[in-house]
Amino acid sequence: MSTPAAEHAPGLASADGISARARGLTKAYGSGETTVLALDSVDVDVARGRFTAVMGPSGSGKSTLMHCLAGLDTVSAGQVWLGDTEITGLKDRELTRLRRDRIGFMFQSFNLIPTLNAVENITLPMDIAGQKPDQKWLDEVVDTLGLRDRLKHRPSQLSGGQQQRVACARALASRPELIFADEPTGNLDSRAGLEVLAFLREAVDQLGQTVVMVTHDPGAAAHSDLVLFLADGRIVDEMERPTAEAVLERMRLFPGGRPQTPGSDPVRGTAQSSSGATSRLSETTEKD
Ligand SMILES: Nc1ncnc2c1ncn2[C@@H]1O[C@H](COP(=O)(O)OP(=O)(O)O)[C@@H](O)[C@H]1O
Ligand SMILES: [Mg+2]
Questions:
Q1: Model-level pTM?
Q2: pLDDT (tens digit, 9 = 90+) per residue, 237-256?
Q3: N or C end of the chain: smaller count of CB under 10 Å?
Q4: Which bound ligand lies closest to the C-alpha atom of 60?
Q5: Domains, the chain, ranges and CATH?
Q6: In what order do the strands lie in the sheet with 51-55?
């Protein structure tokens, strides 16, 4: 498919394997004078088999982007595809089925059912859908996440990190095309957070999953392959092979949520950080 990807617009992957795609994605909340433009004509390609992080100041539209890409929220304008399926315009019931069959979710609050044990929580979405888990895959997920000896425990008998690993296993259980995680380490101490991030990384590297993670933590973003930076509802930059230092440096360019144009490179606004990660400012930002 020929897209502006060839021109290296931020957020547009050059690889063919695109797991989710948005064009002109716009989301407004409210109406009249109280309208909030949460997403402002966002174009983005989420590459298959990669770990993509979404960062930006609070209120920049990270959660809204995730919700719209995942079909959890309707869009005001623009189009969203999951694989080859355009999800904008699907009826509620079709959307529900698509989410159930093709998308996995992780949230800041683990959203586990307290009366069910770990393995029951992991297979719950599939049980509801009347689907049989692929036992071999489930075993692989459980072992990758180190949950083998915790399967009979209820959430209250598990640490926060273990609970989020259960939520991670639940997201992976049906082998979805795409996993969305919104601040999955937000409620965890740093060690447990690191564990969960390492497992998400393994899900991508060893299980071939595609992960999109919203985070405000540069250290968490550093586990991804690509960071997309949002500001005021637009993708204003991206960074390949991020390091925590480079992401932090880039985030410092967002005072009060407004991106600034770094003066470091007069040619194309390319910020080369000391860590070697590259960050490219979009045309949008340069015009700001
Ligand atoms: N349900 C809603 N109703 C009204 N405004 C909303 C709603 N959800 C989000 N917003 C607004 O949209 C903008 C983006 O929000 P959000 O996507 O949650 O940002 P982030 O996740 O980056 O903090 C913010 O200004 C927020 O106040
Ligand atoms: Mg949010």
A1: 0.83
A2: 999 999 999 999 999 988 65
A3: N
A4: 1
A5: 18-283 (3.40.50.300)
A6: 103-106, 178-182, 211-214, 51-55, 226-231, 234-240, 278-281, 270-272
